[in-house]
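Quick review question:
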């Protein structure tokens, strides 16, 4: 029996909203840490400038670790879709549309 469904139709549908907690960790937490570091830098002496710069860099690190994780996950999804398309090609002799 030949399967007429496209190769990627068995995948779960994407969620439209990732959730408020995830948005808090991705964007609000790094922003709060950066703002906290700027506050420390603005109300202190030379030692506070160095400490505040460290806090700002920690906030930026949180943001970029989240970004790297999302980039890695999207690459995994693309590889899975490519593998499903190749399987479909092997079964049907043509590349799936879409």
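Suggested answer, residue by residue:
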């Amino acid at each position: 029996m030949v399967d007429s469904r496209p190769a990627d139709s068995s995948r779960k549908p994407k969620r439209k909203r990732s959730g408020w907690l995830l948005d808090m960790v991705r964007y609000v937490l790094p922003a709060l840490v950066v703002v906290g570091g700027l506050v420390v830098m603005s109300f202190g002496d030379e030692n506070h400038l160095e400490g505040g710069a460290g806090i700002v860099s920690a906030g930026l690190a949180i943001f970029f670790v989240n970004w790297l994780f999302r980039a890695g996950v999207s690459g995994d999804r693309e590889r899975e879709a490519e593998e499903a398309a190749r399987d479909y090609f092997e079964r049907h002799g043509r590349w799936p549309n879409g």
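Why it works: The chain has two helices and no strands. The first helix runs from residue 20 to 42.
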